[in-house]
């Protein structure tokens, strides 16, 4: 059995991170068997290297190795590509064709981006994994194939199963052994090693001296999050190799090539969404509206209770001017809050005296005067409603003021004053 270091040299794998070494060790151990392997990891971490190791170290190494990108094949033709078709099976099928499973008989098939397979194809693949049997498109003859399957995906398979995008039975059949490759941001010690390898390769390719980084530039390189992982790092290295005339690159020059928004700080909302709204979703907006309504209602209750207890005296107006402004606000085009507007707003809040006739209130301009007006058959003023509640409470408690006051949620003294005010 080969050592992980020998395998890395043979397949040109760069890195000394423990997670990378662990993934290579698992690949070496499962290679002599025929069990299915699922390689997981983000896009660009180098998942395609592990199936090659598994095939090269297995007893199938002299047979064919076919890599299939499932996400690049159209849904209508993927069954034909994998399992073949008969002549005339569909429009354009001018002759019979063997699929990848027939061509790779005795070898290994690498299904890259297996999470992108259509559900109908997943059913066919499950049968091949369980029995080794498949049927060509447009045929009724069952064929057999002795193929080892190694799959890879960057999709969260558990979430895909919950969303009914991937069959659960196929997932467990493919996931006999799972090998996970960590993203580059979790292997920071390998970033500079990879950069040096790519810089050396591009120097040979373009016949120019190898670029080098200063100490500060190396730190900036390693602190980058690299969302595109190794593939993105390779592209950046190629750009610097071609565009820069100086072979020693400092931090200021390197920053221009690094991906933007590469901060490692967690963010609940992306920058694009945050610029459009301060809320992450509609639920937070509803909560904000409800909380504001609750606060306004509490302020209105407090203002009304103090108004009833104060007996509409002038001190109430002066003490609660800020609260009145908060509850009733200012219109878009109104003047500053003055004593005259203060008096006008207090007219709405004041309770009418029982012994005085209510005067007709001035008609206020309503920005919603186009709405349909509905006349109520019977209306009760705030005073009449309060008198009715006090009478009912006193009747229920046989004239005892203390239990009646407790029921109304006011003090006994306040109830006594209201009884005298309303001549009850």
Please, could you describe this protein's structure?
The chain has 424 residues and is of the alpha/beta class. The protein is 48% helix and 8% strand. It has a 5-stranded parallel sheet with strand order 2-3-6-1-7, covered by helices on one side. It has a two-stranded antiparallel sheet with strand order 4-5. A two-stranded parallel sheet has the order 8-9. The longest helix is centred in the C-terminal third of the chain and has 29 residues, at 282-310. The protein starts with a helix and ends with a helix.
Helices and strands in order:
Blueprint: H1 4-10, H2 18-30, E1 37-40, H3 49-56, E2 65-69, H4 78-83, H5 100-103, E3 108-112, H6 119-131, E4 133-135, E5 142-144, E6 148-153, H7 157-162, H8 168-174, E7 177-180, H9 188-206, E8 212-213, H10 215-223, H11 229-243, E9 248-249, H12 251-255, H13 271-276, H14 282-310, H15 314-319, H16 321-328, H17 339-349, H18 382-396, H19 401-408, H20 412-421
Parallel strand pairs: 1-6, 1-7, 2-3, 3-6, 8-9
Antiparallel strand pairs: 4-5
Count of alpha and pi helical runs? 20
Q: Give me the secondary-structure category.
A: alpha/beta
Regions with pLDDT < 50 over 5+ consecutive residues? 263-279, 331-342, 354-361, 374-380
Fraction of residues in β-strands = 5-15%
Mean pLDDT: 81
Write the H/E string, N to C: HHEHEHHEHEEEHHEHEHHEHHHHHHHHH
Per DSSP E runs of 2 or more residues, the count of β-strands stands at: 9
Distance between the termini: 103 Å
How many strands, what sense, and barrel or not for the largest sheet? 5 strands, parallel
Shape: elongated
* Share in helix: 40-55%
What is the topology, as strand order, of the major beta sheet? Answer: 2-3-6-1-7
């Amino acid at each position: 059995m080969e050592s992980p270091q020998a395998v890395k040299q043979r397949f040109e794998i760069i890195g000394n991170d423990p997670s990378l070494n662990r993934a290579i060790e698992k690949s070496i151990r499962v290679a002599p068997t025929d069990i299915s392997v699922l390689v997981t990891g983000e896009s660009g971490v180098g998942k395609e290297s592990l199936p090659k190791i598994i095939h090269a170290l297995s007893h199938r190494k002299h047979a064919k190795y076919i890599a299939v990108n499932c996400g690049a094949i159209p849904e209508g033709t993927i069954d034909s590509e994998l399992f073949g078709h008969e002549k005339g099976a569909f429009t354009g099928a001018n002759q019979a064709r063997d699929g990848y499973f027939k061509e790779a008989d005795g070898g290994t098939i690498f299904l890259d981006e297996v999470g992108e397979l259509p559900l109908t194809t997943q059913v066919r693949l499950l049968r091949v994994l369980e029995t080794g049997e498949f049927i060509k498109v447009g045929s009724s003859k069952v064929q057999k194939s002795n193929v080892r399957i190694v799959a890879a995906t960057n999709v969260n398979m558990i979430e895909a199963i919950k969303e009914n995008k991937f069959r659960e039975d196929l997932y467990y059949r493919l996931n006999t052994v799972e090998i996970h490759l960590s993203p580059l941001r979790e292997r920071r010690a390998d970033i500079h090693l990879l950069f040096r390898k790519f810089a050396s390769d591009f120097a040979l390719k373009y016949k120019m001296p190898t670029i080098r980084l200063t100490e500060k530039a190396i730190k900036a390189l390693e602190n980058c999050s690299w969302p595109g992982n190794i593939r993105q790092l390779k592209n950046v290295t190629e750009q610097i190799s071609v565009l820069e005339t100086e072979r020693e690159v400092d931090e200021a020059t390197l920053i221009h090539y690094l991906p933007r928004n590469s901060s490692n700080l967690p963010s609940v909302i992306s920058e694009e969404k945050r610029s459009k709204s301060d809320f992450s979703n509609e639920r937070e907006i509803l909560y904000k509206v409800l909380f504001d309504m609750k606060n306004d209602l509490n302020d209105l209750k407090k203002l009304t209770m103090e108004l009833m207890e104060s007996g509409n005296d002038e001190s109430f107006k002066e003490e609660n001017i800020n609260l009145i402004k908060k509850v009733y606000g200012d219109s878009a085009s109104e003047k500053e809050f003055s004593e005259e507007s203060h008096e006008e707003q207090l007219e709405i809040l004041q309770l009418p005296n029982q012994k005085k006739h209510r005067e007709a209130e001035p008609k206020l301009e309503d920005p919603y005067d186009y709405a349909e007006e509905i006349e109520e058959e019977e209306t009760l003023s705030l005073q009449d409603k309060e008198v009715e509640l006090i009478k009912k409470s006193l009747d229920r408690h046989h004239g005892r003021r203390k239990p009646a006051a407790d029921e109304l949620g006011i003090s006994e003294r306040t109830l006594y004053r209201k009884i005298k005010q309303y001549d009850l």
